[in-house]
Amino acid sequence: MSSEPRQRVVITGDGPHLVEGPVEIVLPDGSRTVSERPVTALCVCYRSTLYPICDTSHRRRRRPTRPETPEEPS
User: Fold this and answer.
1) For a disulfide at 8, which of 20, 42, 55, 57, Cβ 3.0-4.6 Å?
2) Number of domains within the chain
3) What is the pLDDT of residues 6-64, one digit of tens each?
4) Is 9 strand, coil or helix?
5) Does 44 map to a domain?
6) pTM to 2 decimals?
């Protein structure tokens, strides 16, 4: 077991992934970016002009609503 503190990633389902603490991000092309923020929002919709950092561009376009699941009988 490592003695280094663990990074926490929160997957919201409706928006960016949130990573706690300073983080280095490595993209598939090998480029790297560093964020020193206490919480960094990572773009998962590819609309951000600051990709891979979220700039809330996902808020400008409405997402389709999720289909409602029928309630189970009691």
Assistant:
1) 20
2) 1
3) 788 888 887 899 999 899 999 999 999 999 999 999 998 888 899 999 998 877 765 55
4) strand
5) yes
6) 0.66
The parent domain of residue 46 ranges over 9-60
pLDDT at 69 over 60: no
Is 71 within the bounds of a domain? no
How many Å apart are CA 7 and CA 5, to the nearest integer?
A: 7
Cβ atoms within 10 Å of 64's Cβ, excluding its own: 5
> Does some domain include residue 26?
yes
Own/partner pairs, 55-64, CB within 8 angstroms, 24+ separation? 58/15, 58/16, 63/14
Burial class (CB in 10 A: 0-12, 13-18, 19+), 16: buried
